[in-house]
């Protein structure tokens, strides 16, 4: 049985788990502003759990292509009230952030997982401290390391070239190696290929088709296809109309070995995964 060790929970990954997205932002690409107030975000947390989410991922800064950075103070003001409430709901709570000081603040509150699009590389000017230091100093927290080419401001202006799986694997292997060298136990780590983060539409679908090869790194894979522009490119659907495509992509990601799917549309995803699980069970009988 594969376990993802986090601050308060040992998450059983023998079945795929759903991470529900809670964007406490005005400018996220598909739901910016919908849950921007604390009250709306708290209601959304509870709705996602009612629909079947296994864990929550709370973010206070959009990382969509072209998004502008927000200050540490603004990010904390957005997320801390939501995090405090989410921690009372009895499920693992992840925070989507790349700032070491934000990581430290939410881990001090008891957050279970740090989900970082920068894979713990970012450092505040003059601080001398990265997310690696914060995570390594914590006894148990889980961490998800994502591959991103470039940064949110430029990544789609100059995406990766040619074949992508090998450089993605090389990067994730290097970043997981850094954590291991700092004493972080392997059971605390998962990896994310970074769909849409500096990749073209064909490259994203190539990563999906070959996603099972990422398992050779030895860590669980988290897949984040939800409402991404690549789904719009092949379906013609606007961001808010990509629920079916997102559920299909999540289903395929799990079929190709993902153990966690990060989604906006929890109910549709949960139903799709139940169909997959029933099919797999019938094949064993």
Describe the structure.
The chain is α/β, with parallel strands linked by helices and 285 residues long. It has one domain: TIM Barrel (Alpha-Beta Barrel). Helices cover 39% and strands 14% of the residues. The chain has helices at 38-51, 72-86, 100-109, 131-137, 165-181, 201-209, 229-235, 243-255, 266-284, and strands at 3-5, 10-12, 17-23, 55-59, 93-96, 113-116, 142-146, 189-192, 222-223, 260-263. The protein has an eight-stranded parallel beta sheet with strand order 8-7-6-5-4-3-10-9. Strand 7, helix 5 (165-181) and strand 8 (189-192) form a beta-alpha-beta unit. The longest helix is centred in the C-terminal third of the chain and has 19 residues, at 266-284. The model has no long low-confidence stretch (mean pLDDT 92).
Helix and strand arrangement:
Elements lengths: L2 E3 L4 E3 L4 E7 L14 H14 L3 E5 L12 H15 L6 E4 L3 H10 L3 E4 L14 H7 L4 E5 L18 H17 L7 E4 L8 H9 L12 E2 L5 H7 L7 H13 L4 E4 L2 H19 L1
Parallel strand pairs: 3-4, 3-10, 4-5, 5-6, 6-7, 7-8, 9-10
Antiparallel strand pairs: 1-2
Helix pairs in contact: 1-2, 2-3, 3-4, 6-7, 8-9
Short description:
The protein has 9 helices and 10 strands.
CATH architecture name:
Alpha-Beta Barrel
What is the CA–CA distance across the termini? Answer: 20 Å
Radius of gyration: 17 Å
CATH topology, by name, is TIM Barrel
CATH class: Alpha Beta
Given as residue ranges, the uncertain stretches (5+ residues, pLDDT < 50) are: none
Strand content: 5-15%
- Total tally of structural domains: 1
Number of helices: 9
Please give the largest β-sheet. Answer: 8 strands, parallel
Q: Average pLDDT, to the nearest integer?
A: 92
Helix content: 25-40%
Task: Give the strand order, joined by hyphens, for the main sheet.
Answer: 8-7-6-5-4-3-10-9
